[in-house]
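Subject: sequence -> structure tokens, single chain

Hey, anyone have a minute? Need the predicted structure for the following. Not urgent.
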Amino acid sequence: MSHRIITIDGPAGAGKTTVSKLLANELGCVRVDTGALYRGVAYEIIQQDIDWQNNEILTAFLATLDLNFILTKEEPRLVSSGKDITPHIRTPRITMLASATSARPAVRSALLDLQRNIAQEQDAVFEGRDMGTVVFPDATVKFFLFADLTVRARRRFDEIQDAEKDFYRVRQQMEKRDADDSTRSQAPLKPAPDAIHIDASHLTARQVVTKMRRYL
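Reply:
Had a minute. Here:
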């Protein structure tokens, strides 16, 4: 692999997004939020009212999907057919649908090439759930970031901009997503054998990055 590729895998709410932003900024390379790609697929499924559980319909839909990143120094923007959909992919509905559809082999296959093409062009920090195990098994350095479920649920709860949000519902949804992501047959969430494990339960994002820098 000609470019330096750093992967950060882990469950929802572990702090991957914040940490990957800080780390990429310090290293002067691009950050790729692979979870956003799956959210983009979920967004378009909803927009186009796709029966994603039908393999033929899903495959045909994916063949027409024009999903990509516009990479900037500040924040990568996710575009679909030329439209910036970044502001619309962080709703609870899209979060759950992205988790469900990401288990479909057709979806993972469609997005695999895009991720690897980005890696061929430049040094990058990739965050996701199977970056070090499936997408980039030969990555330069692999991290697995995790944290206590209650801590992660509280972080996600604080991010939600909804006056009627409910912490226990957020925790319940996160627990279900953990189970779904970890037990799916296609690319389950798990650390790579050579991944460096970091428990972020009681660490700030800056402290996590400081730990990571020791291995880079």
